[in-house]
Fold this sequence. Notes:
This protein has 309 residues and is of the alpha/beta class. It has one domain (2-293): Rossmann fold (3-Layer(aba) Sandwich), CATH 3.40.50.1820. 35% of the residues lie in helices and 15% in strands. The chain has nine helices and eleven strands. A seven-stranded mixed sheet has the order 3-5-4-6-7-10-11, sandwiched between helices. Strands 1-2 form a two-stranded antiparallel ribbon. A two-stranded antiparallel ribbon has the order 8-9. Strand 10, helix 7 and strand 11 form a beta-alpha-beta unit. The longest helix has 18 residues, at 73-90. It starts with a strand and ends in a 22-residue tail after the last helix. The relative contact order is 0.14.
Amino acid sequence: GMRAADGTALPMRAWLPAGEPRAVVLALHGFNDYSRAFERPGRYWRDQGGIALYAYDQRGFGANRSVGIWPGTAALVADAAGAIRALRARHAGRPLYLLGESMGGAVALALLAEADAPPVDGAILVAPAVWGWSTMNPFYRAGLWFGAHTTPWATWTGRGFGRVASDNYSMLLELSRDPLVIKQTRTDAVYGVVELMDRGLEAAARLAVPSLIVYGERDEIIPRHAARRMLERTDGRARLAVYPRGCHMALRDLDAETVYRDVLAWLADAKTALPSGAEREGRQRIAADGGLTGLPPLRCELKRPETAG
């Protein structure tokens, strides 16, 4: 595990090559998820690229004792900073990258904008969650605010949300059966993550390290207008790869290996052309709008495997 600055032990997973790694990646998982989210990319990058990947269960998630309780943005950011310092010490002289998926992307953005953030060699933001108050419809906002301040223990199951996070049915089924994945979210945690996403959106303007932003063109979770607003704030400083077959969970979708190969190429040389060509029409693809719903023009298609009989 990893010991946070306040003494809290955070469960940790690592995918390590046999020898000294070519580079080290610290990965931050998404909302209600935990470190096992990086099993597939961790193995791939270790085996194909000699990359060491570390991921811990962020506080409030996974196997932590405080599971389900929103820890606050400051604690999440401080934990990530502590992990970077620990990995710098463990792998001195190796390039170190910060990867954030969804909520983890917002934590990464918020951390990198801090004046005293520990240095990293670059950042990979996978569908960063930047759907803050400023991008949200006011009725939705009022409902969240009211809910968080009156019944913070009320839970949201996400049922009837009507949006698909990935086209990978068996992976989603596995998550639904995994006891470490949170199924019922307290209102205060929803409120907290929206606040964090707002911080991430605002922090995007101060993103100064070499960065690769990964989006699935079929992402139904992060509204288009929020994604565009974040890209405007990075002001062309980050590279943007948009995957025509990708959904929100780009590292676990059926086409995930396309993303893995691109990330490996980028880790080897941040200026190289990505093998998939996902960069070519990225900005145009993200500009196509789903109107008020914020949904992408092409939906994420979840194909259930044919059942026998």
